[in-house]
Amino acid sequence: MRDADFFRRWMTAAAAAVEREADRLTELDSPIGDADHGSNLLRGFTAVRAALEEQAREEQAPAAAGEVLQLAGRTLISTVGGASGPLYGTLLRRTGKSLGEAAEVSDAELREALLAGVDAVAQLGGAAPGDKTMLDALVPGVAALSTSYRAAGDAAENGALATVPMQARKGRASYLGERSIGHQDPGATSSALLLGALADVAGAADGTDATDGVR
User: Fold this and answer.
1) Confidence category of residue 26, pLDDT binned at 50, 70, 90
2) What are the boundaries of each domain within the chain?
3) Burial, 198: exposed, middle or buried (Cβ in 10 Å; 0-12, 13-18, 19+)?
4) Which CATH number fits domain 2-206: 3.40.630.10, 3.40.50.300, 1.10.3720.10, 1.25.40.340?
5) pLDDT tens, 36-59?
6) 144 near 152, Cβ under 8 Å?
7) Mean pLDDT of the chain
8) Cα-only R_g, the chain
9) What is the pLDDT of residues 102-160, one digit of tens each?
10) Which of 211, 88, 64, 97 is nearest to 147 (CA)?
C-alpha cells in the first residue's frame, strides 16, 4: 500500500530529476519550442518541493495520499508558464482526485488513477499518442504499470525516444510541420523523468528494483 509519504517522496524525486535534467530539457525544446521547458519545469517542481517542505515544518502534511498530488498539481499550475503548467497540473490533480481521501492506496488504485490523469491531459490538450507530445511517454508508461514500476519507467523513456522521427501534430512544435521531425519531444522526455522517479521511489520503498508487477 502507498501512503502520503510515498507520494511526497515521489514528488521530491521528480523535482530532483527535473533539476538534474533541466538544461537537457531546454536544449530539446530549443529547436521545436520556446526553449523554456527545462526552466519552466524547474521553477514549478522547485516550488512543489518547497510547498511539501513547508507543510512538513508546520506539521500540516496531508494525511490522504491523493492530497499530496493535488497540492503538487495546484502548485505547478500557479508557477509554471506556457502549456506545461496546466498539463502537468491537470495530470497530478486528476490523479490525486481519483485517489480520493484514503490514507493508503494500492498499486492497482494508483494505476487506475494515473490512467484518469492521462485521460484528462489528452482531453485538455486535444492530443493522442503519435502526435509528438507528453502522451507518447505517459500512455505506454502507465500501461506498463500492469507489468511493473520499472517497466513503466522504461516504457515511458522508450516512448520519449520514439518521438524523434514523428512529425508534431499538436503544441508549439506542430507549427514547424516537417521541420519537427528528427527532434525528441521535450514534454515526452520530462514525462519519462516523472515515471522514472516513480519507479525509483517504488523500488526503494519495496527494497527491490521495482520489477514486481502492479496488480
Assistant:
1) very high
2) 2-206
3) buried
4) 1.25.40.340
5) 999 999 999 999 999 999 887 777
6) yes
7) 93
8) 16
9) 999 999 999 999 999 999 999 999 999 999 999 999 999 999 999 999 999 999 999 99
10) 211
Contacts (Cβ under 8 Å, ≥6 apart) of 58: none
Helix axes 149-161, 135-143, angle to 10 degrees: 150
Q: For residue 105, what are the β-bridge partners? A: 2
13-23 per-residue burial string, b: 16 or more CB within 10 A, e: under 16 = bbbebbeebbe
pTM > 0.90: yes
- Please tell me the number of Cα atoms within 13 Å of 49 on its side-chain side: 16
For residues 170 and 132, give the distance between their C-alpha atoms in angstroms, rounded to a whole number: 7
